[in-house]
Amino acid sequence: MNKKFYMRSLMVFVAMIIFISTFYSLPYYVSKPGMAKELAPIIEVENGFEEEGSFMLTTVRMGRANIYSYLLAKVKDYQEIYPIEAIRQEEETDEEYNVRQLHLMSSSKTSAIEVAYKKAGIPINYHYKGVYVLNVMKGMPAEGKLQPGDRIFKIDDMEFKSSEEFIQYVGSKKAGDEIVLTYDRGNRTNSVKLNVQSFGENIEKVGVGIGLVDDKEIEVDPEVKVETSDIGGPSAGLMFSLEIYNQLTKVDLTRGYEIAGTGTISSDGRVGRIGGIEQKVIAADNAGAEIFLAPYEDGADDSNYHAAVKTAKDIKTKMKIVPANTFDEVVEQLIKLEPK
């Protein structure tokens, strides 16, 4: 009887420790394979062409580590542990990190639309709205005055056409000069007076202490809708551009295959490096992908492509790993595929 009692007590104690540990965050992030998500249901070009196969974006599951997830990642294959500073910028809060990821995704969608419509020879109209505040530096004039997510659209009652113009105007001031920023927060418009301040090693370099990104809309015909409310970051850019272009043109780039992949996309069509390539290869394989597109980075030894090839061999997948350097090169490779 006593033995059973002690065993039950021990089990209850261990369960309590595990339960409590899930609420104690460590200064680390843990990443693991996520999912491969078909893009056709979340991207819709008005009157777009259908495809026989599918393009899929790939994700990793990333979260703050607790004691349990940290120990599990230590012994599980293809789970990675990162210190906070490797994921978040210096002094960046959780809120600022989330805002940055959402705006990186927004910029990624804009670039993907630009690349796809340019490739299809369809005109694009631009509407510049200002800059978004990504983060606020401690000890600088904007601290306590501006917040991540604020949209600044005027300086001293003057509108500007790019973040470069914003930076140049502020940088032309001298330490102590006052500027007035007009911004939207939520559904309200506000103004704030700030005195620019020197920062960094160069005392002539001045600013108000914000990280920013362009807020611009592009207008295209036919219209395209990209629903990404539950996805953050820029790594789906390549796959977005392929899906959009495929719906714009008669030739089906999928050739009937299940094609997954990853990589950022710039407005000039360059494919960029991403994080978590190993986990994304596994996610694609688990989803039954037959082809995986990975950033080639001009053949660098440590490129995403080479890491993807190694992972594919390790897990003994039949999935073909294809290098992706530019959007145009990827399109050319896909067109050459034998239709399934």
UniProtKB/TrEMBL annotation:
Domain Lon proteolytic: from-to ranges: 229-337
Domain of life, per lineage: Bacteria
EC number assigned by the record: 3.4.21.53
Residues annotated as the enzyme's active site: S235, K280
Cross-referenced SMART domains: PDZ (SM00228)
UniProt GO molecular function: peptidase activity
InterPro entries with a match to the protein in the record: Lon_proteolytic, Lon_Prtase, PDZ, PDZ_sf, Ribosomal_Su5_D2-typ_SF, Ribsml_uS5_D2-typ_fold_subgr
Pfam families named in the record: Lon_C, PDZ_2
PANTHER family according to UniProt: ATP DEPENDENT LON PROTEASE FAMILY MEMBER
Name of the featured protein: endopeptidase La
Species in which this protein is naturally found: Robertmurraya mangrovi
